[in-house]
Amino acid sequence: MSTQRPARPGVRQPRAKDVRSGDQRGRDVGPDPSWGLERRGPAPARLDDVDQRLLAALAADARLPNNALAARAGVAPSTALTRVRQLRERGVIRGFHADVDPARTGHPLQAMIAVQMRGAARTRLSGYLQRLAELPGVLNVFLLGGAHDFFVHVAAADSDALNEFVIEHLSTDPDVALTETNLIFQHARASWY
Length: 193
Known about the structure:
Strand content: 15-25%
Low-confidence stretches: 1-39
Number of helices: 5
Strand order of the largest sheet: 2-3-1-4
Shape: elongated
Largest sheet: 4 strands, antiparallel
């Protein structure tokens, strides 16, 4: 007697698993791309305890000299140097950046702007993400799943400048259906990398 449910029309059924090898039969083992759940990007890198300690130390202070970094990770300086080089080559470390305070550069007002695109524009989200990232005052852009398509983190000189940014770059764009601006009162940088 089979306990397997009958297939519903239009719904892709998972392939049977080969118990002996642990592999799935056939080549089609990922989620159906029409579900929007396909994996984007590389698989996570395998990181051991030394890698974790090096990353934590660099996330806290990317300007640590190699000997201090090695001491914090509990390894020899040559090991630290080699491991950091390998982490960069594997794409785990994408770069080293200065944490600039927008208020000290004349942009004390920060906001997170939620952006919802019109239906037809949703096929061009990746390109729009890059376009948003190049706008003046933009600190970060996040492509989302959910009610909004993007969160745009911006810094502005004052409320007039923020209003001008939203109108000039977002509200008048025919691809944008809705914007919602939320002011940021305080920010704490996370210590986890």
